Amino acid sequence: MINSRRSFLKTAVVSGGMLSLDATGFASQALASSARKVELFAHRGASALRPEHTLAAYARAIADGADYIEPDLVSTRDGVLVARHEAILDETTDVSQRPEFAAKRTTKTIDGRTHTGWFCDDFTLSELKSLRAVERLPKVRPQNTFYDGMFQILTWDEIIDFAAAESATVGRLIGLVPELKHSTYFAKAGLPLEDRFLKSLTEHEYTKRCPLEIQSFEVANLKYIRSVIGKKDNIRLMQLVAEGNIRPADVVAAGDDLSFGAMSSKVGLRDIARYADVVAPPTRALIPLLADGKLGKPTALISDAHDAGLLVHTWTFRPENRFLAADFRDGNGENARNEMGSIAEIRRYIDAGIDGFFSDDSAIGRKAINA
After folding, report:
1. pLDDT (tens digit, 9 = 90+) per residue, 218-249?
2. Does 119 or 15 have the greater pLDDT score?
3. Alpha-carbon torsion 202, 203, 208, 212, what sign?
4. CB count, 10 Å around CB of 208?
5. List of E strands, 286-368
6. 3-state secondary structure of 82
7. Is residue 79 part of a domain?
8. pTM of the entire structure?
């Protein structure tokens, strides 16, 4: 197991052979004699508090106790891996305010979605470095707009070096959880991600020893990475899944019919376990919402994944009321931060048996784990 992971002890009171019930009436799944490690993944850094994928967001997440920081990786026109949630630039940079790049505005279809705007693969690294990051959700998180224009787009190499420096400063290994975005799209554009990414892991001393969890919604890229690197003590592969009949982009491109719903079945999970170590469903696939917006009962997905030998890491917990289940909201407005409600919601998922989770606010996530 990776030594940097934090742990907490779930103390279920056992009486008459029955596990104790929590305040919501659900039986705790933990045994009193066992300690379970729950890992905290900083979703694009501390993106509830700073513009995502910036040094400020990553630094805040590390200071607030994140076990891993997440860079979503896309490619520049000259083949450099950089951190952006999407290939699209207009929501998270000031590109729309830059007249020198007006001619680069275009329309593209990526993973089945058509968008008109600016795309990272039309920019060289030098051009991207002239842009500045902005808050992606300014209406929800207006306080973060204070930092608009302060930070450059980061390369993957810069993030590795930053994590190494922070690790030396705080005295613990900081994990990296990179997501390879739009692999099929970039391969078609002549900018395949996988070999450049794997080469980068050999070029940094830090990535040879730090916890790494490589994630993707696509399947073929993870299978390829597993075939190249095999099993390594410090590296896990995470298969991201959505809900229902949505299909991974590489499956669509190949003309196959495998859906995320099928991947989340008992048979599908066993198939994932052949090449990955972790399955990562959205939170509501694990505990769905009822008609009134409150949390219902856990599905079988966590136990089925564990039976297949997979860890379960879920996405994404956000601290504002609008993102919480109805039973955890307060009366302070849709966009108000609700720390206590967020902690209570995360605890429900920890009690259900998750092994880790992505959070926009690492301080809240850490409090939930330590509760």
Report:
1. 999 999 999 999 999 999 999 999 999 999 99
2. 119
3. negative
4. 13
5. 311-317, 356-359
6. strand
7. no
8. 0.89
Q: Say if 241 falls within a structural domain.
A: yes
Per the domain annotation, does 324 fall within a domain? yes
Using CB atoms within 10 A of its CB, is residue 257 exposed (0-12), middle (13-18) or buried (19+)?
Answer: exposed
Q: CA–CA separation, 239 vs 113, rounded Å?
A: 21
pLDDT reported for residue 35: 63
User: Which stretch of DSSP H or E encloses residue 163?
Assistant: helix 156-170
Backbone angles phi, psi at 33, to 5 degrees: -90, 0
Mean pLDDT over residues 115-128, rounded? Answer: 98
Does the pLDDT at position 136 exceed 50? yes
What are the strands, taking DSSP E only, across the chain?
7-9, 14-15, 18-19, 35-37, 39-42, 68-69, 72-75, 81-83, 106-110, 113-117, 175-176, 179-180, 212-216, 235-240, 278-280, 311-317, 356-359
**pLDDT at residue 25 above 60?**
no
Percent of residues, the chain, with pLDDT higher than 90:
90
The domain of 23 spans: 7-73+153-370
Q: Give Dmax (Cα) for the chain.
A: 73
Q: Please report whether residue 306 resides in a domain.
A: yes
DSSP state of 294: S
Where does the pLDDT of residue 28 fall: very low under 50, low under 70, confident under 90, or very high at 90 and above?
very low
Q: How many domains does the chain have?
A: 1
pLDDT exceeds 50 at position 31 = no
For residues 82 and 128, the answer to whether their CB atoms sit within 8 Å is yes
Find the mean pLDDT for residues 118-122.
98
Nearest to 66 by CA among 46, 94, 96: 46
Beta bridge partners of residue 175, listed in sequence order: 68
The radius of gyration of the chain's CA atoms, rounded to the nearest angstrom, is 20
CATH of the domain at 67: 3.20.20.190
333 with 265: CB under 8 angstroms?
no
E strand segments, 119-181: 175-176, 179-180
Are 368 and 324 in contact, with CB atoms under 8 Å apart?
no
